[in-house]
Protein backbone atom coordinates (compact mmCIF):
# COMPACT_ATOMS: atom_id res chain seq x y z
CA UNK A 1 0.00 0.00 0.00
CA UNK A 2 1.36 3.45 -0.95
CA UNK A 3 2.27 5.82 1.83
CA UNK A 4 -0.33 8.41 0.67
CA UNK A 5 -3.13 5.77 0.79
CA UNK A 6 -1.92 4.71 4.23
CA UNK A 7 -1.96 8.34 5.40
CA UNK A 8 -5.51 8.76 4.04
CA UNK A 9 -6.75 5.62 5.85
CA UNK A 10 -4.98 6.75 9.03
CA UNK A 11 -6.66 10.19 8.76
CA UNK A 12 -10.08 8.59 8.21
CA UNK A 13 -9.49 6.30 11.20
CA UNK A 14 -8.43 9.24 13.36
CA UNK A 15 -11.49 11.22 12.20
CA UNK A 16 -13.84 8.31 13.06
CA UNK A 17 -12.16 8.03 16.48
CA UNK A 18 -12.71 11.75 17.07
CA UNK A 19 -16.38 11.46 16.06
CA UNK A 20 -16.89 8.43 18.33
CA UNK A 21 -15.21 10.27 21.22
CA UNK A 22 -17.51 13.24 20.71
CA UNK A 23 -20.57 10.93 20.66
CA UNK A 24 -19.56 9.25 23.95
CA UNK A 25 -20.46 11.87 26.57
CA UNK A 26 -17.46 13.20 28.45
CA UNK A 27 -19.14 12.47 31.78
CA UNK A 28 -19.41 8.71 31.09
CA UNK A 29 -15.84 8.59 32.41
CA UNK A 30 -16.34 11.30 35.03
CA UNK A 31 -14.77 14.74 34.94
CA UNK A 32 -12.01 16.43 36.95
CA UNK A 33 -13.18 19.07 39.43
CA UNK A 34 -10.72 21.53 40.96
CA UNK A 35 -11.10 23.20 44.36
CA UNK A 36 -8.84 25.60 46.27
CA UNK A 37 -8.78 25.48 50.09
CA UNK A 38 -6.97 28.40 51.70
CA UNK A 39 -6.60 27.76 55.42
CA UNK A 40 -6.85 31.15 57.13
CA UNK A 41 -7.88 32.80 60.39
CA UNK A 42 -11.28 34.47 60.37
CA UNK A 43 -13.21 36.46 62.97
CA UNK A 44 -16.61 34.84 63.52
CA UNK A 45 -19.29 36.30 65.82
CA UNK A 46 -21.79 34.06 67.61
CA UNK A 47 -23.62 34.43 70.96
CA UNK A 48 -22.47 38.09 71.08
CA UNK A 49 -18.80 37.00 71.16
CA UNK A 50 -16.25 37.31 68.36
CA UNK A 51 -13.64 34.57 68.04
CA UNK A 52 -10.74 34.19 65.65
CA UNK A 53 -10.96 30.68 64.21
CA UNK A 54 -9.20 28.48 61.66
CA UNK A 55 -11.34 28.28 58.51
CA UNK A 56 -11.26 27.24 54.87
CA UNK A 57 -11.53 30.31 52.61
CA UNK A 58 -12.81 32.36 55.57
CA UNK A 59 -16.06 30.35 55.67
CA UNK A 60 -17.63 28.65 58.70
CA UNK A 61 -18.69 25.94 58.06
CA UNK A 62 -16.36 25.42 55.12
CA UNK A 63 -17.25 25.25 51.42
CA UNK A 64 -19.42 22.52 49.98
CA UNK A 65 -17.67 20.08 47.62
CA UNK A 66 -19.90 18.57 44.94
CA UNK A 67 -18.94 15.76 42.56
CA UNK A 68 -20.54 12.89 40.68
CA UNK A 69 -19.73 9.22 41.12
CA UNK A 70 -16.69 8.57 38.89
CA UNK A 71 -15.33 12.14 39.07
CA UNK A 72 -11.78 13.01 39.99
CA UNK A 73 -11.32 15.64 42.71
CA UNK A 74 -8.18 17.78 42.81
CA UNK A 75 -8.18 19.94 45.93
CA UNK A 76 -5.25 22.23 46.59
CA UNK A 77 -4.89 23.03 50.31
CA UNK A 78 -2.63 25.95 51.23
CA UNK A 79 -1.84 26.62 54.90
CA UNK A 80 -1.78 30.31 55.90
CA UNK A 81 -2.08 29.74 59.68
CA UNK A 82 0.44 28.99 62.44
CA UNK A 83 -0.85 25.43 63.11
CA UNK A 84 0.00 22.36 61.05
CA UNK A 85 -2.97 21.24 58.91
CA UNK A 86 -4.30 18.10 57.28
CA UNK A 87 -7.75 17.41 55.76
CA UNK A 88 -9.60 14.07 55.71
CA UNK A 89 -12.28 13.24 53.12
CA UNK A 90 -14.47 11.27 55.49
CA UNK A 91 -15.96 8.13 53.94
CA UNK A 92 -14.16 8.33 50.58
CA UNK A 93 -12.74 4.87 49.85
CA UNK A 94 -9.44 6.25 48.44
CA UNK A 95 -8.84 3.11 46.38
CA UNK A 96 -5.03 2.90 45.95
CA UNK A 97 -4.85 6.65 46.73
CA UNK A 98 -4.13 6.46 50.46
CA UNK A 99 -1.76 9.45 50.17
CA UNK A 100 -4.90 11.61 49.83
CA UNK A 101 -6.74 10.23 52.89
CA UNK A 102 -5.52 12.99 55.21
CA UNK A 103 -5.00 11.85 58.84
CA UNK A 104 -1.80 13.52 60.09
CA UNK A 105 1.12 11.13 60.78
CA UNK A 106 -0.90 8.17 59.42
CA UNK A 107 -1.03 8.75 55.64
CA UNK A 108 0.87 12.04 55.45
CA UNK A 109 2.95 14.49 57.42
CA UNK A 110 0.86 17.61 58.06
CA UNK A 111 0.95 20.68 55.81
CA UNK A 112 3.19 23.21 57.53
CA UNK A 113 2.69 26.98 57.60
CA UNK A 114 3.18 28.49 54.14
CA UNK A 115 3.09 25.07 52.41
CA UNK A 116 0.55 23.49 50.04
CA UNK A 117 -0.56 19.96 49.25
CA UNK A 118 -2.86 18.75 46.48
CA UNK A 119 -5.33 16.02 47.50
CA UNK A 120 -5.98 14.09 44.29
CA UNK A 121 -8.47 11.20 44.27
CA UNK A 122 -11.28 9.63 42.25
CA UNK A 123 -14.74 8.81 43.62
CA UNK A 124 -15.21 5.12 42.74
CA UNK A 125 -18.53 3.33 43.24
CA UNK A 126 -19.89 5.80 45.80
CA UNK A 127 -22.79 8.21 45.78
CA UNK A 128 -24.49 10.09 48.64
CA UNK A 129 -23.54 12.40 51.49
CA UNK A 130 -20.03 12.41 52.96
CA UNK A 131 -18.02 15.25 54.48
CA UNK A 132 -14.51 16.60 54.95
CA UNK A 133 -12.79 17.82 58.12
CA UNK A 134 -9.46 18.72 59.67
CA UNK A 135 -7.61 15.62 60.92
CA UNK A 136 -4.99 16.97 63.28
CA UNK A 137 -5.30 18.04 66.92
CA UNK A 138 -8.81 19.46 67.63
CA UNK A 139 -8.96 21.56 64.48
CA UNK A 140 -11.99 19.77 63.07
CA UNK A 141 -14.06 21.90 65.49
CA UNK A 142 -14.09 24.64 62.81
CA UNK A 143 -12.59 22.94 59.74
CA UNK A 144 -15.44 20.95 58.20
CA UNK A 145 -17.94 20.97 55.35
CA UNK A 146 -20.18 18.75 53.20
CA UNK A 147 -18.87 16.46 50.44
CA UNK A 148 -21.83 15.62 48.21
CA UNK A 149 -21.55 12.88 45.60
CA UNK A 150 -24.36 12.88 43.05
CA UNK A 151 -25.17 9.70 41.10
CA UNK A 152 -23.79 9.35 37.58
CA UNK A 153 -25.74 11.23 34.89
CA UNK A 154 -29.11 9.62 34.09
CA UNK A 155 -28.92 7.30 37.11
CA UNK A 156 -31.95 8.13 39.29
CA UNK A 157 -32.17 7.93 43.07
CA UNK A 158 -33.88 4.71 44.23
CA UNK A 159 -36.52 6.95 45.87
CA UNK A 160 -38.73 9.88 44.86
CA UNK A 161 -36.81 12.68 43.14
CA UNK A 162 -36.66 15.55 45.62
CA UNK A 163 -37.81 19.08 44.76
CA UNK A 164 -34.70 20.45 46.50
CA UNK A 165 -31.64 19.14 48.41
CA UNK A 166 -30.39 20.83 51.58
CA UNK A 167 -27.23 20.02 53.63
CA UNK A 168 -27.81 20.14 57.41
CA UNK A 169 -24.50 19.93 59.27
CA UNK A 170 -24.30 19.81 63.08
CA UNK A 171 -21.19 21.22 64.73
CA UNK A 172 -19.80 22.34 68.07
CA UNK A 173 -20.00 20.62 71.41
CA UNK A 174 -18.91 21.26 74.98
CA UNK A 175 -15.46 22.35 76.15
CA UNK A 176 -14.40 23.76 72.79
CA UNK A 177 -17.34 25.80 71.57
CA UNK A 178 -20.13 27.52 73.48
CA UNK A 179 -22.98 25.85 71.63
CA UNK A 180 -24.03 23.21 69.16
CA UNK A 181 -24.72 24.61 65.71
CA UNK A 182 -26.77 23.83 62.59
CA UNK A 183 -24.93 25.00 59.47
CA UNK A 184 -22.73 27.13 61.75
CA UNK A 185 -25.66 28.80 63.58
CA UNK A 186 -26.60 28.10 67.25
CA UNK A 187 -30.27 29.11 66.90
CA UNK A 188 -32.91 30.71 69.14
CA UNK A 189 -32.62 28.48 72.24
CA UNK A 190 -29.24 29.99 73.21
CA UNK A 191 -28.80 33.45 74.72
CA UNK A 192 -28.04 36.25 72.30
CA UNK A 193 -28.49 34.00 69.29
CA UNK A 194 -31.96 34.55 67.78
CA UNK A 195 -30.52 36.29 64.70
CA UNK A 196 -28.07 33.38 64.14
CA UNK A 197 -30.73 30.82 63.30
CA UNK A 198 -30.77 28.43 60.35
CA UNK A 199 -34.11 28.75 58.55
CA UNK A 200 -35.24 26.07 56.14
CA UNK A 201 -37.81 27.78 53.91
CA UNK A 202 -40.11 25.30 52.19
CA UNK A 203 -43.15 25.23 49.90
CA UNK A 204 -46.25 23.16 50.71
CA UNK A 205 -46.71 19.79 49.03
CA UNK A 206 -43.04 19.27 48.11
CA UNK A 207 -40.39 16.64 48.96
CA UNK A 208 -37.02 17.86 50.26
CA UNK A 209 -33.86 15.75 50.65
CA UNK A 210 -32.02 16.73 53.85
CA UNK A 211 -28.38 15.64 53.82
CA UNK A 212 -27.66 15.47 57.57
CA UNK A 213 -24.06 15.34 58.84
CA UNK A 214 -22.88 15.11 62.45
CA UNK A 215 -19.62 17.09 62.65
CA UNK A 216 -19.97 17.73 66.42
CA UNK A 217 -16.82 16.99 68.39
CA UNK A 218 -18.00 14.69 71.14
CA UNK A 219 -21.74 14.07 70.93
CA UNK A 220 -24.14 11.65 69.37
CA UNK A 221 -27.30 13.61 68.62
CA UNK A 222 -31.05 13.05 68.46
CA UNK A 223 -32.75 15.18 65.77
CA UNK A 224 -36.40 15.87 65.01
CA UNK A 225 -38.64 18.39 63.21
CA UNK A 226 -41.86 19.28 65.04
CA UNK A 227 -45.05 17.76 63.51
CA UNK A 228 -43.18 16.26 60.53
CA UNK A 229 -42.19 12.69 59.68
CA UNK A 230 -38.82 11.91 58.09
CA UNK A 231 -38.10 9.02 55.71
CA UNK A 232 -34.54 7.67 56.06
CA UNK A 233 -33.19 6.74 52.60
CA UNK A 234 -29.38 6.58 53.04
CA UNK A 235 -26.62 6.59 55.67
CA UNK A 236 -22.87 7.12 55.12
CA UNK A 237 -23.47 7.34 51.34
CA UNK A 238 -25.21 3.93 51.22
CA UNK A 239 -28.87 3.54 50.20
CA UNK A 240 -31.07 1.86 52.81
CA UNK A 241 -34.52 0.27 52.81
CA UNK A 242 -36.58 3.42 53.42
CA UNK A 243 -38.38 3.75 56.76
CA UNK A 244 -40.32 6.51 58.46
CA UNK A 245 -39.38 8.02 61.81
CA UNK A 246 -40.06 11.21 63.78
CA UNK A 247 -36.55 11.19 65.28
CA UNK A 248 -33.11 10.16 64.02
CA UNK A 249 -29.95 9.34 65.99
CA UNK A 250 -26.63 10.26 64.40
CA UNK A 251 -23.11 9.84 65.87
CA UNK A 252 -20.15 12.10 65.10
CA UNK A 253 -18.77 11.05 61.71
CA UNK A 254 -22.05 9.69 60.39
CA UNK A 255 -24.35 11.07 57.70
CA UNK A 256 -28.07 10.40 57.19
CA UNK A 257 -30.17 11.34 54.16
CA UNK A 258 -33.87 11.84 54.89
CA UNK A 259 -36.86 12.84 52.77
CA UNK A 260 -39.06 15.53 54.28
CA UNK A 261 -42.55 15.74 52.77
CA UNK A 262 -44.04 19.14 53.53
CA UNK A 263 -47.70 19.60 54.42
CA UNK A 264 -50.07 19.87 51.44
CA UNK A 265 -51.31 23.35 52.41
CA UNK A 266 -49.83 26.35 54.21
CA UNK A 267 -50.07 25.30 57.90
CA UNK A 268 -50.25 28.77 59.51
CA UNK A 269 -47.36 27.79 61.84
CA UNK A 270 -43.58 27.44 61.98
CA UNK A 271 -41.75 24.38 63.29
CA UNK A 272 -38.56 24.04 65.33
CA UNK A 273 -36.05 21.42 64.20
CA UNK A 274 -33.87 20.56 67.16
CA UNK A 275 -30.93 18.36 68.09
CA UNK A 276 -29.52 17.48 71.48
CA UNK A 277 -27.09 14.85 72.76
CA UNK A 278 -27.57 11.16 73.47
CA UNK A 279 -25.36 10.61 76.52
CA UNK A 280 -24.04 7.26 77.79
CA UNK A 281 -20.79 8.16 79.59
CA UNK A 282 -20.18 9.47 83.09
CA UNK A 283 -18.27 12.64 82.18
CA UNK A 284 -19.63 16.16 81.99
CA UNK A 285 -21.69 17.00 78.95
CA UNK A 286 -23.63 19.86 77.44
CA UNK A 287 -27.35 19.06 77.50
CA UNK A 288 -28.35 22.16 75.56
CA UNK A 289 -30.33 21.98 72.31
CA UNK A 290 -29.54 23.51 68.97
CA UNK A 291 -32.51 24.60 66.88
CA UNK A 292 -33.33 25.77 63.39
CA UNK A 293 -36.74 26.77 62.07
CA UNK A 294 -38.77 25.12 59.32
CA UNK A 295 -40.71 27.97 57.71
CA UNK A 296 -43.35 27.63 55.02
CA UNK A 297 -43.15 30.30 52.34
CA UNK A 298 -46.54 31.89 52.64
CA UNK A 299 -48.54 34.38 50.59
CA UNK A 300 -47.89 38.02 51.49
CA UNK A 301 -51.26 38.53 53.21
CA UNK A 302 -50.28 36.06 55.98
CA UNK A 303 -48.36 38.66 57.96
CA UNK A 304 -49.62 37.86 61.45
CA UNK A 305 -47.37 36.02 63.92
CA UNK A 306 -47.68 32.25 63.73
CA UNK A 307 -47.35 29.67 66.50
CA UNK A 308 -43.99 27.89 66.73
CA UNK A 309 -44.21 24.15 67.44
CA UNK A 310 -41.43 22.26 69.26
CA UNK A 311 -40.54 18.59 68.75
CA UNK A 312 -40.23 16.13 71.63
CA UNK A 313 -36.83 14.44 71.79
CA UNK A 314 -36.01 11.25 73.75
CA UNK A 315 -34.42 11.48 77.23
CA UNK A 316 -30.65 12.10 77.14
CA UNK A 317 -29.80 8.47 78.03
CA UNK A 318 -32.48 6.70 75.95
CA UNK A 319 -30.45 3.66 74.88
CA UNK A 320 -33.60 1.68 73.97
CA UNK A 321 -34.50 4.32 71.33
CA UNK A 322 -30.89 4.25 70.08
CA UNK A 323 -30.97 0.44 69.78
CA UNK A 324 -34.35 0.31 68.04
CA UNK A 325 -33.34 3.02 65.60
CA UNK A 326 -30.11 1.30 64.56
CA UNK A 327 -31.96 -2.03 64.14
CA UNK A 328 -34.19 -0.44 61.48
CA UNK A 329 -31.19 0.36 59.26
CA UNK A 330 -30.90 -2.24 56.45
CA UNK A 331 -29.00 -2.03 53.18
CA UNK A 332 -31.16 -1.66 50.09
CA UNK A 333 -29.54 -4.91 48.82
CA UNK A 334 -31.12 -4.57 45.37
CA UNK A 335 -29.65 -5.94 42.10
CA UNK A 336 -28.42 -2.42 41.27
CA UNK A 337 -27.12 -1.69 44.80
CA UNK A 338 -26.18 -5.10 46.24
CA UNK A 339 -24.94 -5.80 49.76
CA UNK A 340 -21.73 -7.76 49.08
CA UNK A 341 -21.29 -9.09 52.61
CA UNK A 342 -18.24 -11.36 52.98
CA UNK A 343 -19.78 -14.81 53.66
CA UNK A 344 -16.44 -16.57 54.19
CA UNK A 345 -14.20 -15.12 56.91
CA UNK A 346 -10.40 -15.40 56.65
CA UNK A 347 -9.53 -13.59 59.87
CA UNK A 348 -11.56 -13.29 63.08
CA UNK A 349 -10.56 -10.48 65.42
CA UNK A 350 -11.79 -9.32 68.82
CA UNK A 351 -11.02 -5.76 69.98
CA UNK A 352 -11.95 -4.24 73.33
CA UNK A 353 -12.75 -0.53 73.17
CA UNK A 354 -12.02 0.97 76.58
CA UNK A 355 -11.25 3.96 78.68
CA UNK A 356 -8.29 3.64 81.05
CA UNK A 357 -5.49 5.53 82.76
CA UNK A 358 -1.82 6.43 82.38
CA UNK A 359 0.58 7.68 85.05
CA UNK A 360 0.51 11.45 85.41
CA UNK A 361 3.55 13.61 84.71
CA UNK A 362 2.60 16.26 87.29
CA UNK A 363 5.35 18.64 86.21
CA UNK A 364 3.83 19.40 82.81
CA UNK A 365 0.11 18.82 83.17
CA UNK A 366 -2.93 18.77 85.39
CA UNK A 367 -4.34 15.27 85.46
CA UNK A 368 -8.03 14.64 86.03
CA UNK A 369 -8.07 10.84 86.10
CA UNK A 370 -8.82 8.77 89.21
CA UNK A 371 -6.18 8.64 92.00
CA UNK A 372 -3.90 11.24 90.42
CA UNK A 373 -3.72 9.50 87.01
CA UNK A 374 -4.53 10.93 83.60
CA UNK A 375 -7.33 9.63 81.41
CA UNK A 376 -6.43 7.40 78.49
CA UNK A 377 -8.32 5.21 76.06
CA UNK A 378 -7.32 2.09 74.19
CA UNK A 379 -8.07 -0.67 71.72
CA UNK A 380 -7.09 -4.10 73.16
CA UNK A 381 -5.54 -2.12 76.04
CA UNK A 382 -3.05 -0.38 73.72
CA UNK A 383 -3.29 3.40 73.70
CA UNK A 384 -2.06 4.53 70.29
CA UNK A 385 1.00 6.80 70.31
CA UNK A 386 1.08 9.06 67.25
CA UNK A 387 4.43 8.69 65.44
CA UNK A 388 6.52 11.63 64.21
CA UNK A 389 6.79 10.17 60.66
CA UNK A 390 3.74 9.21 58.60
CA UNK A 391 3.09 5.44 58.82
CA UNK A 392 2.23 5.12 55.10
CA UNK A 393 5.53 6.73 54.08
CA UNK A 394 7.49 4.50 56.48
CA UNK A 395 5.75 1.41 55.05
CA UNK A 396 6.08 2.37 51.37
CA UNK A 397 9.79 3.16 51.60
CA UNK A 398 10.56 0.15 53.84
CA UNK A 399 11.62 2.36 56.77
CA UNK A 400 9.26 1.07 59.46
CA UNK A 401 12.00 0.35 62.04
CA UNK A 402 11.48 2.59 65.03
CA UNK A 403 8.29 4.08 63.50
CA UNK A 404 5.70 1.33 64.09
CA UNK A 405 5.41 -2.22 65.31
CA UNK A 406 3.53 -4.69 63.01
CA UNK A 407 2.14 -6.91 65.79
CA UNK A 408 -1.10 -5.32 66.98
CA UNK A 409 -2.87 -8.08 68.99
CA UNK A 410 -5.83 -9.87 67.37
CA UNK A 411 -7.52 -10.13 70.78
CA UNK A 412 -6.92 -8.79 74.31
CA UNK A 413 -3.94 -10.15 76.29
CA UNK A 414 -6.12 -10.43 79.40
CA UNK A 415 -9.67 -11.74 79.18
CA UNK A 416 -12.08 -10.51 81.85
CA UNK A 417 -15.80 -9.95 82.33
CA UNK A 418 -15.82 -6.92 80.01
CA UNK A 419 -19.19 -5.51 81.00
CA UNK A 420 -19.19 -6.72 84.63
CA UNK A 421 -17.21 -5.35 87.56
CA UNK A 422 -14.11 -3.67 86.10
CA UNK A 423 -10.60 -4.86 87.05
CA UNK A 424 -8.70 -2.88 89.70
CA UNK A 425 -5.81 -2.16 87.33
CA UNK A 426 -7.00 0.41 84.77
CA UNK A 427 -3.55 1.23 83.37
CA UNK A 428 -3.10 0.93 79.59
CA UNK A 429 0.03 0.17 77.62
CA UNK A 430 1.17 2.67 74.98
CA UNK A 431 2.56 2.03 71.52
CA UNK A 432 2.40 2.58 67.76
CA UNK A 433 1.21 -0.81 66.55
CA UNK A 434 -0.49 -1.78 63.29
CA UNK A 435 -2.37 -4.93 62.32
CA UNK A 436 -1.09 -6.36 59.01
CA UNK A 437 -3.58 -7.89 56.54
CA UNK A 438 -2.73 -9.61 53.23
CA UNK A 439 -4.59 -8.11 50.26
CA UNK A 440 -8.22 -9.31 49.90
CA UNK A 441 -8.43 -10.79 53.41
CA UNK A 442 -12.05 -10.96 54.56
CA UNK A 443 -12.23 -9.77 58.15
CA UNK A 444 -14.76 -10.26 60.91
CA UNK A 445 -14.16 -7.88 63.79
CA UNK A 446 -15.98 -7.84 67.13
CA UNK A 447 -15.78 -4.45 68.89
CA UNK A 448 -16.52 -4.88 72.61
CA UNK A 449 -17.21 -1.97 74.95
CA UNK A 450 -15.94 -2.43 78.53
CA UNK A 451 -17.00 -1.13 81.94
CA UNK A 452 -13.54 0.26 82.76
CA UNK A 453 -14.19 3.81 84.06
CA UNK A 454 -17.81 3.34 82.97
CA UNK A 455 -19.26 1.85 79.79
CA UNK A 456 -19.84 4.31 76.97
CA UNK A 457 -21.05 4.30 73.38
CA UNK A 458 -18.10 4.79 71.00
CA UNK A 459 -18.63 5.77 67.34
CA UNK A 460 -15.81 3.88 65.59
CA UNK A 461 -14.71 5.12 62.15
CA UNK A 462 -12.68 3.03 59.71
CA UNK A 463 -10.73 4.87 56.99
CA UNK A 464 -10.39 3.41 53.48
CA UNK A 465 -13.32 0.96 53.71
CA UNK A 466 -17.01 0.52 54.23
CA UNK A 467 -18.00 -2.38 56.47
CA UNK A 468 -21.17 -4.36 57.11
CA UNK A 469 -22.70 -4.30 60.60
CA UNK A 470 -23.74 -7.97 60.82
CA UNK A 471 -24.70 -8.04 64.51
CA UNK A 472 -24.82 -6.17 67.80
CA UNK A 473 -25.94 -6.77 71.36
CA UNK A 474 -25.53 -5.93 75.02
CA UNK A 475 -23.27 -7.60 77.59
CA UNK A 476 -20.29 -9.71 76.55
CA UNK A 477 -20.11 -11.09 73.01
CA UNK A 478 -20.75 -14.86 72.97
CA UNK A 479 -18.84 -16.53 70.08
CA UNK A 480 -21.03 -19.66 70.34
CA UNK A 481 -24.50 -18.08 70.40
CA UNK A 482 -24.31 -14.61 68.85
CA UNK A 483 -23.12 -15.50 65.29
CA UNK A 484 -26.32 -17.54 64.82
CA UNK A 485 -28.23 -14.25 64.74
CA UNK A 486 -25.91 -12.41 62.33
CA UNK A 487 -27.61 -10.73 59.37
CA UNK A 488 -25.67 -11.74 56.24
CA UNK A 489 -28.48 -10.81 53.81
CA UNK A 490 -29.05 -7.04 54.07
CA UNK A 491 -26.94 -5.67 56.95
CA UNK A 492 -26.31 -1.94 56.98
CA UNK A 493 -23.07 -0.89 55.28
CA UNK A 494 -21.30 2.17 56.64
CA UNK A 495 -17.98 3.78 57.62
CA UNK A 496 -18.79 4.79 61.23
CA UNK A 497 -20.66 2.64 63.76
CA UNK A 498 -21.68 3.21 67.37
CA UNK A 499 -20.32 0.46 69.64
CA UNK A 500 -23.22 0.22 72.14
CA UNK A 501 -22.63 1.26 75.74
CA UNK A 502 -22.10 -1.99 77.70
CA UNK A 503 -22.33 -4.04 74.51
CA UNK A 504 -20.66 -5.12 71.28
CA UNK A 505 -20.94 -4.79 67.53
CA UNK A 506 -19.79 -7.24 64.82
CA UNK A 507 -18.56 -5.93 61.45
CA UNK A 508 -17.24 -7.57 58.29
CA UNK A 509 -15.17 -6.04 55.51
CA UNK A 510 -12.92 -7.06 52.64
CA UNK A 511 -9.36 -5.70 52.85
CA UNK A 512 -9.22 -4.86 49.13
CA UNK A 513 -7.51 -1.45 49.46
CA UNK A 514 -3.70 -1.47 49.92
CA UNK A 515 -2.27 1.12 52.31
CA UNK A 516 -2.31 2.18 55.95
CA UNK A 517 -5.79 2.87 57.31
CA UNK A 518 -6.67 4.58 60.57
CA UNK A 519 -9.49 3.30 62.79
CA UNK A 520 -10.54 5.45 65.74
CA UNK A 521 -13.34 6.65 67.97
CA UNK A 522 -14.94 9.78 66.47
CA UNK A 523 -15.40 11.41 69.88
CA UNK A 524 -12.50 13.88 69.75
CA UNK A 525 -11.78 13.61 73.48
CA UNK A 526 -11.28 9.82 73.18
CA UNK A 527 -9.08 10.22 70.09
CA UNK A 528 -6.86 12.57 72.11
CA UNK A 529 -6.66 9.90 74.84
CA UNK A 530 -5.45 7.22 72.36
CA UNK A 531 -8.59 5.33 71.29
CA UNK A 532 -7.21 4.57 67.83
CA UNK A 533 -5.18 2.01 65.86
CA UNK A 534 -4.10 1.40 62.25
CA UNK A 535 -4.41 -1.40 59.69
CA UNK A 536 -1.70 -2.11 57.13
CA UNK A 537 -3.16 -3.78 54.03
CA UNK A 538 -0.40 -5.24 51.84
CA UNK A 539 -0.27 -4.94 48.05
CA UNK A 540 -1.93 -7.63 45.94
CA UNK A 541 -0.17 -9.45 43.09
CA UNK A 542 -1.76 -7.57 40.17
CA UNK A 543 -0.76 -4.03 39.13
CA UNK A 544 -4.25 -2.67 39.98
CA UNK A 545 -3.94 -4.13 43.50
CA UNK A 546 -0.92 -2.07 44.49
CA UNK A 547 -0.67 1.27 46.26
CA UNK A 548 0.33 4.01 43.83
CA UNK A 549 3.58 5.87 44.58
CA UNK A 550 3.34 9.12 46.59
CA UNK A 551 2.80 12.47 44.84
CA UNK A 552 5.84 14.75 44.54
CA UNK A 553 4.32 17.43 46.79
CA UNK A 554 3.68 15.03 49.71
CA UNK A 555 4.40 17.13 52.84
CA UNK A 556 7.58 16.44 54.81
CA UNK A 557 7.65 16.02 58.58
TrEMBL record:
Domain Plastocyanin-like: from-to ranges: 39-152, 174-297, 416-539
GO terms for cellular component: apoplast
Gene Ontology MF terms: copper ion binding; hydroquinone:oxygen oxidoreductase activity
Signal peptide: 1-30
Broad class of enzyme this protein falls into: oxidoreductase
EC code: 1.10.3.2
Pfam families linked to this entry: Cu-oxidase (PF00394), Cu-oxidase_2 (PF07731), Cu-oxidase_3 (PF07732)
Catalytic activity: 4 hydroquinone + O2 = 4 benzosemiquinone + 2 H2O
Note describing how the cofactor binds: Binds 4 Cu cations per monomer.
Domain of life: Eukaryota
Compartments (UniProt record): Secreted, Extracellular space, Apoplast
Transmembrane residue ranges: none
Keywords associated with the record: Apoplast, Copper, Glycoprotein, Lignin degradation, Metal-binding, Oxidoreductase, Repeat, Secreted, Signal
One annotated GO biological process: lignin catabolic process
CDD domains per the UniProt record, alphabetical: CuRO_1_LCC_plant, CuRO_2_LCC_plant, CuRO_3_LCC_plant
Cofactor: Cu cation
UniProt record similarity statement: Belongs to the multicopper oxidase family.
Described purpose of this protein according to its UniProt entry: Lignin degradation and detoxification of lignin-derived products.
Name of protein: Laccase
Protein's organism: Fraxinus pennsylvanica
Amino acid sequence: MGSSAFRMLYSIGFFITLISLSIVPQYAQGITRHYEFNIKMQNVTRLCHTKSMVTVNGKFPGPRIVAREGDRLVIKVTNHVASNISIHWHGIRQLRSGWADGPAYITQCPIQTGQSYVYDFTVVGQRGTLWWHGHISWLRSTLYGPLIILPKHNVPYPFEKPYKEVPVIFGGGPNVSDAYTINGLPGPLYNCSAKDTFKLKVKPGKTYLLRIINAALNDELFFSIANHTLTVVAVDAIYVKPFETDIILITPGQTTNVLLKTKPNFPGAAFLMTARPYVTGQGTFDNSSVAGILEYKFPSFHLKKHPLFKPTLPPLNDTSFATNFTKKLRSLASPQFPANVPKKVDKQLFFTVSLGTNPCDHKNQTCQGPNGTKFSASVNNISFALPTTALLQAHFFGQSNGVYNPNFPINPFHWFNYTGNPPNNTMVSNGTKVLVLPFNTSVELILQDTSILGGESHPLHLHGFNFFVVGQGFGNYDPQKDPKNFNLVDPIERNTVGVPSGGWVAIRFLADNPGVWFMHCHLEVHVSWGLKMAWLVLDGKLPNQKLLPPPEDLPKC
